[in-house]
Design a protein that fits this description.
The protein is an all-alpha fold. It has a domain at 27-79. 71% of the residues lie in helices and 0% in strands. The protein has helices at 15-29, 36-45, 48-79. The longest helix has 32 residues, at 48-79.
Length: 80
């Protein structure tokens, strides 16, 4: 008969630890778009690490958008 392995380690996190790690995971995964609502929500919560992560993700997103826009404008210039 197969037996189930049991773990002795507690998997429970404190409320602040789960909120911070969840927000950081969302930022890393790209699931949370770096627009006004998440930025304002992070500011309202006052979580310094979350604000830094959202700031970094937003700067990267803007860099990517600016690059794509430059390529678009270049393609439009070639077609005129």
């Amino acid at each position: 008969m197969a037996t189930r392995k049991t773990t002795t380690k507690s998997t429970r996190k404190s409320a602040s630890a789960s909120r911070t790690s969840g927000a950081a995971a969302a930022i890393r995964s790209g699931a949370l778009p770096p627009y006004g609502v998440p930025i304002r929500a992070a500011i309202a919560r006052g979580d310094q690490r979350e604000m830094q992560a959202i700031g970094a993700a937003t700067r990267q997103h803007l860099k990517n958008v600016q690059s794509a826009l430059a390529k678009l404008e270049g393609a439009l210039g070639k077609k005129r």
